[in-house]
Amino acid sequence: MSDCLFCGIVAGDVPATIVSQTPRTVAFADINPQAPVHVLVVPRAHHANLAELIDSPEEDLLREVLAHATEVAQSCGVADGHRIVFNTGPEGGQTVEHVHAHVLGGRQMTWPPG
Ligand code: 5GP
Ligand code: ZN
């Protein structure tokens, strides 16, 4: 989508610190990190949120996003303590409508999240 920030990052039109890439997913550093490790993992294809991805013909992409997020946790040294989060909708804290997994780690996570 032309007006989507994360599509812009995937396309290389918007600068970002790329952590790693796969054929169908991209991991990049969050611009406003909430933990020492804070990486976003997105599918290259635009889907607004988790429900739209699951309902799409390429719902297998979700597995690739999760596998990539887990690989990022390992490569960033937080395999033994991290959180993977999908915020959904305004009340869920979603501000960018291109589905993304937050990989957070490197500090003690609190529960419940705010
Ligand atoms: P959400 O609030 O939708 O769950 O997460 C969106 C995330 O994108 C936020 O954590 C925010 O800091 C991050 N973000 C917003 N704009 C940019 C940007 O231009 N570049 C990068 N790398 N991250 C961004
Ligand atoms: Zn997008």
Structure write-up:
- It is a single chain.
- The protein is of the alpha+beta class.
- It has a single domain (5-105), classed as HIT family, subunit A (2-Layer Sandwich), CATH 3.30.428.10.
- It contains three helices and five strands.
- It has helices spanning 5-11, 50-55, 61-75; strands spanning 18-21, 25-29, 37-43, 82-85, 101-105.
- It has a five-stranded antiparallel beta sheet with strand order 1-2-3-5-4, with helices on one face.
- Strand 2 and strand 3 (37-43) form a beta hairpin.
- 26% of the residues are buried.
- Bound molecules: guanosine-5'-monophosphate and zinc ion (ZN).
- Guanosine-5'-monophosphate (5GP) is lined by residues 5, 16, 28-32, 40, 87, 93-96.
- Residues 5, 16, 28-32, 40, 87, 93-96 line the site of guanosine-5'-monophosphate.
What tags apply to this protein structure?
114 residues, alpha+beta, HIT family, subunit A, five-stranded antiparallel β-sheet, 22% strand, binds guanosine-5'-monophosphate, binds zinc ion
CATH class: Alpha Beta
CATH architecture label: 2-Layer Sandwich
Query: Which molecules are bound in this entry?
Result: guanosine-5'-monophosphate, zinc ion
Helicity, as a percent range: 10-25%
CATH level 3 topology: HIT family, subunit A
Main sheet record: 5 strands, antiparallel
Unreliable stretches, pLDDT < 50, 5 or more residues? none
Spell out the helices and strands N to C: HEEEHHEE
Task: Please indicate the percent range of residues in DSSP E strands (runs of 2 or more).
Answer: 15-25%
Radius of gyration: 13 Å
- How many DSSP H or I helices? 3
What is the typical, i.e. mean, pLDDT? 97
